[in-house]
Each structure stands twice: as C-alpha cells, then as structure tokens.
Write a structure and sequence with these properties.
The complex is a heterodimer of chains A (492) and B (99). Chain A is of the alpha/beta class. Chain A contains 15 helices and 11 strands. In chain A, strand 10 and strand 11 form a beta hairpin. In chain B, a hairpin with a 2-residue loop joins strand 1 and strand 2.
C-alpha cells in the first residue's frame, strides 16, 4: 500500500514520477488505482478502450526497470491515456468512427512510442470527435463525453475524452491533438492545462490524419510543469516517417520553468475582446491579466486584424485536406465495408455513407467542392493566401510582445446538444483558437477562474515559433502564484 | 451563391458518398449556410500574395526531404491485412472491375 498521505489520483505527472523513482509506490499499484477509478466513472463516457492485462503488463515491466535503477528514463511507471486518434498496437484504434470500429493497428504512433520509451504506462484510449472533427465531442460514433464539472455540458472537443479524464483525475495526463483548437478548447472547458506545440514539433506518424497542414499532438495535464515534462518526451524529429516533421532537436521544455515574468511583454489582441466574448469569460481573463501585471509583466495592446476571417479560411482548408485524407477509407484495405453493393464504385459509396457520421460527411463534401474544377482558385487558394496574411499579422504582433494572451473560447462549455443541429454555430465558437492553428504557432490553455454555471474558464497563451519553453514558463509562473489549476470538480 | 440539389449530387459523387434524399436536402441547406460565412473571405484583396500551404514555411525552408532509396520497413503483410474486410491468399478482394 502507498505510504503517501495524498491519494494517488490527486498527484500530477511530476509528483508521481518522483514517488515511483523513490519506490514509495509501485507502477503496478499506480496502474491498478487508476484502472479502478476509470471503471468507477464510466458515466463520463471518456474511454473507448480499456485492457487491464495490457496495462498491468506494462506496469510490471516499469517496476522491473525501476528495481534495476534505470534513471535515464524520465517517466518510468507514470500512467496516462491516449486520444483514440493515435494508433496503438495493443489497443483498438477507432478515431471515434464507425469506419474503424475494431481496427487493430500493426504499429504504434510515434508519439505513443516516444512516451512508452520514457516509461509511460498506457491506461487506455480516449473518446474524441470522429476523426477529430468537432468542438463538443458529440460527433463520436461511440457516444458523447460529459463534462465532469456539470454532466449536462460538453467537455469540448475534439479531445473531449482526454480533457474530461484529466479533470476527473481518472488519469494524471493524456495526449490530445489540435487541428483548430482541439487541445486548447477542451482544456479550457474542463479546467485543465493543455499545449499544442509549433506545427512540426510532434510527429504525425500514426495520428489518423484529418488536416495534415494543421494537425499537431500535445499533452493535457493538471499543470504547466506536467505538460512540459510530457511535451519534452513526445516531441522530436521523425524525418523518415513524417514529411513535415521539423528538423530541430528534441528539447527539455522544463528548462525555463522558474524564470521570472518581470519585464515580460504580453500582447493583448483587441479582436479577442469584442462583443462576441461573454462577460463572465471576459471577467476571468481580465483578472488573470491583472495577476500577470502583479507578477511584473506589461500588457501591450496588439491587433490581429484577420481573427474573424480565420473561421472561413480554416473551414475551407481543413475540409479540403480532410476530403483528400479520408479518401483512404474505401472498404478495401481496412475498416468498414458495406454488405450489399452492385460494383466497385457502389461499394465505395455505400461503405463511406455507412461508415462516416454527419459532420465528417459534411466536411468531405465541402472539401471535395472547394477542390473541384472551377472553384479551387476562388476558395482553396484564396484561403491559403489569407492564411499567409494571418501568419504575417502574428509576425507583426511578435515585434511588440513576447507572448499573446486572450480567451480560448467566447463562452464556457455549453449544454450537450445545444449546437449539434447547427454546425455553423459550432464553427463560430472556434474563433480564438483558429488563428494560431493556421499560423502553426504553439498555443496553450490554462485555467484562470470560473464563469457562468461555475464552469471553468481557460486563458489562451500563444508563443512565437519554437518558443514552447517560454510559453510553458509563463503558464507555470501563473500557476505558482494562483491555484485555479488545482481546483477539482465535485465527486471526483 | 447557392448550391442546388444537382450540385449536391455532383459533389456527393466526387466524394464517393451515397446520400439518401433527406440527407442530401439537409446537406444542401447546411452547406449553403456555411458558404454564407465564406462570402466575407472572397471579398479580401489578396493580389500578389503567395498561398501558404505549410505554416512552417513562414520561418524555415521546407523543401521536400528525400530519404535514401533503400528498404527500411520489414515485411508486415499479415499484420497489415489483419483488418481488411476481405482477403484471399494474401490479396485484397474487391468486386470485379474488368469483365
């Protein structure tokens, strides 16, 4: 039994790694503790795959390495779960789609393999929107996820299972992916910390592709320090397997933690504080900005004039890339195949009609249309030209500031079902996360208070290219001075 | 701009999706709603701007990498075919395409 006065599930990644290293607790007992919690809280719908045997075998292996005194490996015995968008050898990988129900990958995603190489024990696979397309986790073919702060509300999406499981302490941390905000927005809605690195930092190999020029992996955890540890483990060049992997060495993202933010210039984009921003969210963000001023930072008004345009630009580019990526689901090499068909084309059409959900079909249709003859220039190329303007706007802004801060989302988490009949309403709510995604910049969400319905509010921090260390420290300094990140939902 | 049901049928064919009539109609309304949002984007003057396909191109050269032309992956035919809907003698089965 554990000698620790704090329950295991209340410990973060750094604290757990320390206890494991000091042999105060075994990897096996840690894994068992979390598996029991996961089973006790299936009402959240956070998990799509759990396999005690696989998890416990990994934990026993970690205990052997711990007994052998392996000190090279930083996360030895620390358990976490993976968004089901990452393929795994030992767990079924569905991407939240009926198309991939029961799919067994012959290999592990690079991100999964890199974390395993650092000693991480896998607790299972987490629910998400189908192919990561959604902002409420309601597009999963396997049912929605509930927000642990209020079970009638969405946890956000598409990494909704990841954020809910971390908030409910069912796991110490989880992987997520962010194409247009899918790590930052659920982190904000569930009151946890999450980071999406610079595009190209984390390998996309084995991440089921949605929009290849935008998709990035990152961790969700309960502190910036934990995120820094995990991000250090999961990033790094993967040049042979990901054609857009950055050729920059892996980094220790914890190295800047502890630097004072005195003198730091925080850019505050006026476009993030317009009438679309709910007053309760605004109040929490304003208070957080004041806290930074107390810590010695200076607020600098900046402008990101194409913020609103980022919505149509993203919702042209992402579906265009998705329609191309998802053409691989044809009922031939893997996944679902329709039962009755007259010929090959009919088989494709029926297989795809049965296997994909509504939102995925909508995006494939939009993508096929904007890439089709006669519309390509007017939509797709025009969107890519404005994408350059958006990136240029950030370049201008970073001449005046070190990091950018603002809201992650215009409101707190909405009620499940509220936007499910109106896709455009849900797209509009992505307004503040899309610009950094289109520019490929690193972005975070940290909890900074509560808004309507006592729901968490997340503040977005955006850094310049490859400045994750600085970004994580800016978040860490806030978390050293406040305890919003330590608040837990009742009943967990 | 407004898409007609004929447009939706054409796009669904391009996307290889068999849509039921009520699904097509719902899709038509929703996609037209979406394109109202896109109109703002079309009015932006982007003359002389290079399309940005790859975000990292803004700060680093992203010329395509080539790897050595050698075998790097082991033969994993069985593992790769494990999830296929129909396989025979190591081959993927599809309906007859050539008479």
């Amino acid at each position: 039994m554990s000698n620790s006065p704090t329950a295991l599930h209340e410990l973060g990644v750094a604290a757990l790694a320390r206890q494991l290293r000091e042999r105060k607790v075994s990897a096996l007992e840690t894994a068992q503790h979390f598996l029991a919690r996961m089973r006790a809280h299936t009402e959240l719908g956070a998990f799509l795959a759990i396999d005690d045997e696989v998890t416990l075998a990994q934990a026993r292996a970690a205990d052997q390495a711990l007994a052998a005194g392996n000190s090279e490996v930083t996360l030895l015995g620390v358990p976490m779960a993976h968004k089901d968008i990452f393929v795994t050898k030992d767990f079924v990988s569905t991407a939240g789609s009926k198309m991939l129900a029961g799919y067994r990958s012959p290999f592990d995603a690079t991100v999964v393999a890199k974390l395993a190489a650092q000693g991480v024990v896998t607790l299972g696979k987490l629910n998400c929107d189908e192919f990561a397309m959604g902002s409420a986790n309601e597009n999963s073919a396997f049912g929605p996820v509930s927000n642990p702060w209020d079970r009638t509300r969405t946890p956000g999406g598409s990494s909704g299972g990841s954020a809910a499981a971390v908030a409910a302490c069912l796991v110490p941390a989880a992987t997520g992916t962010d194409t247009g905000g899918s790590i930052r927005q659920p982190a904000s809605f569930c009151g946890v910390t999450g980071i999406k690195p610079t595009y190209g930092r984390a390998s996309r190999y084995g991440m089921v592709a949605f929009a290849s020029s935008l998709d990035q992996a990152g961790p969700l955890a309960r502190s910036a320090e934990d995120c820094a540890l995990l991000l250090s483990a999961l990033c790094g060049p993967d040049l042979d397997r990901d054609s857009t992997s950055l050729d920059v060495p892996a980094e220790d993202f914890t190295r800047a933690l502890g630097t004072s933010v005195a003198g730091l210039k925080i850019g505050v984009p006026q476009e993030f504080f317009g009438e679309g921003l709910a007053p309760d969210v605004r109040a929490a963000i304003d208070a957080a900005l004041k806290e930074y001023e107390k810590l010695g930072a200076t607020l600098v008004p900046i402008s990101l004039p194409r913020t609103e345009l980022s919505i149509p630009v993203y919702y042209i580019i992402a579906p265009a890339e998705a329609s191309s990526n998802l053409s691989r689901f044809d009922g031939v090499k893997f996944g679902h195949r329709a039962k009755d068909y007259s010929d090959l084309t009919d088989m494709y059409k029926k297989t795809r009609a049965e296997g994909f959900g509504d939102e995925v079909k909508r995006r494939i249709m939009i993508g096929a249309y904007v890439l089709s003859h006669g519309y390509y220039d007017a939509y797709y190329l025009q969107a890519q030209r404005i994408r350059r303007m958006i990136a240029d706007d950030f370049a201008q802004a970073f001449k005046q500031c070190d990091v950018i801060a603002g809201p992650v989302a215009p409101t707190v988490a909405w009620k499940l079902g509220d936007k499910s009949e109106d896709p455009v309403a849900s797209y509009l709510a992505d307004i503040f996360t899309l610009p950094a995604s289109l520019a490929g910049l690193p972005g975070m969400s940290i909890p900074v208070g509560f808004g309507a319905g006592q729901m968490p509010v997340g503040m977005q921090l955006i850094g310049n290219y490859l400045q994750e260390s600085k970004l994580l420290n800016v978040a860490h300094q806030f978390q050293q001075a406040t305890d919003w990140h330590a608040k837990r939902p009742q009943g967990f | 701009m407004s898409l007609t049901s004929a447009d939706i049928a054409r796009i669904a064919n391009l996307a290889r999706l068999a849509l039921k009539p009520d699904e097509s109609e719902r899709m038509r309304v929703q996609i037209n709603g979406f394109f109202d949002l896109v109109e703002k984007m079309r009015a932006v003057d982007t003359t002389g701007l290079e399309p940005l396909a790859h975000p990292v191109a803004t700060f680093q050269d992203v010329s395509l990498r080539l790897r050595e032309d050698c075998v790097s992956e082991p033969n994993m035919r069985e593992a790769n075919q494990r999830s296929a809907p129909a396989v025979e003698h190591g081959l993927f089965l599809v309906p007859k395409v050539i008479e």
